[in-house]
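RECORD TYPE: inverse folding
INPUT: structure tokens
STRUCTURE:
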């Protein structure tokens, strides 16, 4: 690639593919920020790239397998162009390390989530012909770890406020790939968001595996609600979101904040995982179904327009037909605005991998499908309930396939296509009010009510 010599005169191209959660999206944006500083531009064609990076996820087996098939696709490319550098980042890189180099002789770099900020140095090494592995998990946040501003495009951005997880839910690989919880200083977070606002960002999502343990887990200097208050007071920012909240840790102070802070979107993602106390216990989640229900019912009593979404795992080891029925009953009772349901996937090294009663793929598939079918009806009913109501939409641009309408998201993240009268000047990145006229399972149709704010 000749990075050193050519950096002055030739712009190089990076092809970057991201799998997994918003943490990975954010890490990818930070990689792009670093690469931009050394004269890389992004391309969506791997065939003309000087550098191919795959940011990976290993939360379920399927996600991991996707990485190997993706990697396989680039083998021929490398043969044709030996100067091409191929790197694997993210949670598979962290888990597999060295082993990936053995598995894929055409791979040059393997680096984990705590090593993203070293990308420039890693590239120099790879460029000089060495194959590099950087998978050290550090206890504290490195100076400079969040140094390069994430590349932000558009009106929305993610900001990591902490990293890692201390919960060790028995099924979950994340604590092994992301290390222990460490919080960032509020001043660093605020200045990162100010930088994003200067680039035109209007909505930020504060990220952490368990944002409710921000600060108490060390490193942070204020409580999570206090941090949210600081972020909400930033001028230029129109919306603030956060995820993920752990049901055992979400507190009264945070819930009150939804009443006081107008910029805080009325949406809470609160993963329940199962509707059976027996299974929740085996998962190590630290709450019961009735504790969970009373929390969300209190929240909905205070804020009737609050959208609540959740994650559910179908077919955890030892889950009986009755346990699963309890989960279905919870879904019917809670009437979530949406659920993200997954079939249990055995992750080597986690506690649940050695639990008795691992279920067949048939049982897990059938239960997953039953959950999805149940929720599809509820989601549509909840969307239909909005017909005739006014919603607040952050405009993202013209609707795909119909440029006469504008597309945006409600506070609870529903997609809305808005018919606008001719002459109404709607700006991307502005908030507008619209009256809902129709609903499908995935989108709302609406008519513009007022102009921009
Ligand atoms: N920190 C968040 C979520 C992290 S992973 C939380 O605690 O809720 C996102 C979701 O993936 C989890 O909520 C869970 O539903 C799912 N998940 C994690 N490990 C899984 C596994 N081994 N099999 C199936 N789903 C899993
Ligand atoms: Fe995984 Fe549990 Fe941590 Fe979420 S809280 S990342 S599910 S261990
Ligand atoms: Fe996947 Fe790692 Fe996120 S395993 S879900 S990319 S923390």
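DESIGNED SEQUENCE:
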């Amino acid at each position: 690639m000749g990075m050193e010599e050519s950096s002055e005169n030739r712009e190089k191209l990076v092809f970057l593919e991201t799998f997994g959660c918003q943490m990975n999206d954010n890490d990818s944006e930070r990689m792009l920020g670093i690469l931009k500083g050394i004269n890389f531009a992004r391309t969506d064609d791997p065939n003309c790239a000087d550098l191919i990076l795959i940011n990976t996820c290993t939360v379920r087996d399927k996600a991991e397998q996707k990485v190997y098939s993706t990697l396989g696709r680039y083998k021929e490319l490398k043969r044709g162009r030996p100067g091409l550098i191929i790197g694997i980042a993210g949670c598979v890189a962290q888990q597999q390390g060295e082993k990936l180099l053995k598995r894929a002789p055409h791979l040059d770099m393997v680096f984990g989530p705590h090593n993203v900020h070293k990308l420039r140095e890693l590239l120099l090494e790879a460029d000089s012909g060495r194959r590099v592995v950087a998978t050290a998990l550090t206890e504290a946040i490195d100076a400079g770890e969040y140094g390069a501003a994430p590349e932000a495009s558009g009106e929305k951005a993610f900001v990591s406020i902490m990293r890692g997880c201390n919960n060790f839910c028995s099924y979950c690989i994340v604590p092994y790939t992301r290390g222990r919880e460490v919080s960032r200083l509020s001043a660093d977070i605020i200045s990162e968001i100010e930088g994003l606002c200067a680039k035109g960002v209007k909505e930020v999502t504060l990220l952490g595996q368990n944002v409710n343990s921000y600060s108490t887990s060390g490193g942070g200097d204020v409580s999570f609600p206090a941090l949210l208050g600081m972020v909400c007071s930033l001028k230029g920012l129109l919306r603030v979101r956060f995820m993920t909240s752990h049901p055992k840790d979400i507190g009264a102070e945070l819930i009150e904040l939804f009443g006081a802070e107008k910029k805080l979107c009325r949406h809470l993602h609160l993963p329940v995982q199962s509707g059976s106390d027996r299974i929740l216990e085996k998962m190590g989640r630290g709450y019961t179904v009735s504790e969970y229900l009373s929390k969300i019912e209190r929240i909905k009593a205070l804020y009737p327009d609050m959208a609540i979404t959740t994650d559910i795992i179908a077919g955890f080891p030892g889950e009986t037909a009755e346990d699963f029925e309890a989960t279905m009953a919870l879904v019917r009772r809670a009437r979530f605005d949406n659920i993200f349901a997954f079939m249990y996937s055995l992750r080597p090294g986690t506690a649940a991998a050695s639990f008795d009663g691992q279920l067949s793929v048939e049982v897990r598939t059938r239960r997953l499908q039953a959950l999805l079918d149940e929720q599809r009806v509820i989601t549509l009913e909840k969307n239909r309930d909005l017909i005739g109501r006014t919603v607040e939409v952050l405009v993202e641009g013209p609707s795909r396939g119909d440029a006469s309408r504008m597309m945006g998201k409600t506070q609870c993240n529903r997609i809305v296509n808005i018919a606008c009268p001719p002459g109404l000047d709607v700006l991307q990145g502005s908030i507008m009010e619209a009256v809902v006229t129709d609903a499908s399972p995935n989108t709302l149709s609406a008519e513009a009510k007022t102009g921009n704010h």
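NOTES: The mean pLDDT is 94.
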